[in-house]
Fold this sequence. Notes:
By secondary structure, the chain is mainly beta. The protein is 10% helix and 29% strand. The strands form eleven sheets. A five-stranded antiparallel β-sheet has the order 1-7-6-5-4, with no helix packed on it.
Amino acid sequence: MKSIILGVVCVSLALFISCENKPEALIYDDSAIANESQTENWLAYGRTHNERRFSPSDQINADNVSRLKVDWFMDLPYDVGLVSTPLVIDGVLYFTGTMNVIRAVDAVTGALLWEYNPQVAKEIEGKKTIGWKHNRGISFYEGKIFAATWDGRLFALDAKTGEELWMVRTFSQERSLYITGAPKAFKGKVLIGNGGTEHGPTRGWVTAYDADTGEEAWKFYIVPGNPADGFENEAMEMAAKTWTGEWWKHGGGGNAWHGFTYDEELDVLYIGTGNGSPWNRKIRSPEGGDNLFLCSIVALKPDTGEYLWHYQTTPGESWDYNSNMDIVLTDLTIDGKEIKAMLHAPKNGFFYVINRETGKLVSAKPFVKTTWASHIDMETGRPVEVPGARYEDNRAYITPNPYGAHSWYSMSYNPQTGLVYLPALHYATNYSDEGMDLDNWQAQEFIGGLGVAPLEAEDPADYPASLIAWDPVKQEAAWTVPQEMTPNAGTLTTAGNLVFQGRADGKLLAYEASNGEVLWTYNLGLGIAAPPITYEIDGKQYLSLLVGWGGGAAGLGNLFSSKKHTTQQLGWAYGTHMRRLVTFSLEGTSEMPPLPPPYFPIPLEAPEFEVDTAKAAFGAQLYGLCQGCHGGGVLAAGMAPDLRASQIALNKEAFTAVVRGGTNVAAGMPAHPDLTDEQLDALQHFIRQRARETLTE
């Protein structure tokens, strides 16, 4: 369903753009989207097709950034986690909010122009589903906005009016899949993948649709299916030789949920691929094997989806080390030779420079402490693994942990400084599959599983995160800023010798790009998970970002980490702090009301509730269905209500209505219609047990 909030004939009267010229002004082809020199727009997820997140704008610079003030802001009272990158096209700013609602606002005034609601709640009502309420972004191509819903639909809107042009379902709702990533529009097509590797036996793929009609153009599977069914293409036949056992019963994984880059110069599409399903290779491929195309960059022909080449960062991975992270394109001079390069920093802790013409490795070095591999062999391009890293002898202390040394939080590349600005993580985990029946282990749809237990481990550094300025030519850090809380948002860099980054503690900072000196800090009063963007209108430069604590850490909390640094310590409780779209300029004069201080929900005493320890133990096994939003160990981190402090969790009828009946589906709480009375009762006992434990800690 769409709703045009304002009857807008021209997108922005403030820009003095004639109505007659507006349709033509919205037409941008691939060469325009790849243009690094323009400053007026932010046309793609990473600003241009090259995904650098670098702007040549320098009106705001290292000398005057301390004068930045709020120019305008927009309260978003119905949103929760906001993690997306907005787009700016011809004076209009577009963004996606909670439950995949798309909004267009005047980029000068912040006035709402139109809003489109894909009605996710109605689509998932009464159905088994998993997913996240947030989405990382949208895409634009020749007058259309493209977006996806977490229930699996892809749609196109008229960028001028918000009118729905087409909508397609990309996977069956019988599958435990979801979409959180931004589509990638290029060359008359729009590409989308999906997530869900941990929620069932999944086989990853990406699909390209015709941008004008929504008709499927091509599909590329990331891992091979059952050989008895035949292979879709020669690439799948080749990949099957790197798998063993009956991997297809486990799906294999590889889901591509982020990391799509179109190379307009070479006319090549690159996709970053996901980890294995399940994580443990001993289960999905028991006799070993590289398991292509897991944890890889795969180059495809954009017109047909035909395989060109691949580079695998983590062969036969067993640690959730996906390569869904940014793929940044640039030209580098290394040892006197000009190289058409791609820059990639996946979860596994190594920074890769790859020749994007050939797929050959140029260089790779660790940018954080890595204990699973000592280095990358330059002759083979393969990691040299440390003995015992695959938890062959039971427990293995491994860093990075499943959150990765670098997750989806975007890095940026400044061609003037030659540095990549990378939000890094410093976590460890003890991996163990002790006690698991590896021969008979099998994931089920909507239940899933990892096939390994990531256990708490002491982190390898005194700080959990850092901002690293990485030199991809020298393969070393130029400077590093340790950070006390995590995760911190993606970065933006500009020709003004600046790097901007929002942090988990609610502060937006500007650093001097050449040396890391903090030049400006603004406390926005709520954890920031979305990266900033910049644009110019009528010679005035703006800086804009969404403020709303979100992402996996706002749901899971410190599930795979030590208790030294936890997201629960931040106090960004569900429903307490107003989410906002905030835009700054050097001439800003807006007064933005302050937000409440951090809030920490207090578990309810409820002495009348007698906990049955056996039921609570059963509930602990079932709680995996809930922890993605309500937090590991029932310690909510901000994405959803804290169940320890919830009256609903104490009332059997209300709890049943919400959890099984789906009465809160409009707020993003899906129904679980298959849960029995016994299971619901067990969950209540586990929640109450955890409330009492935390009250006495």
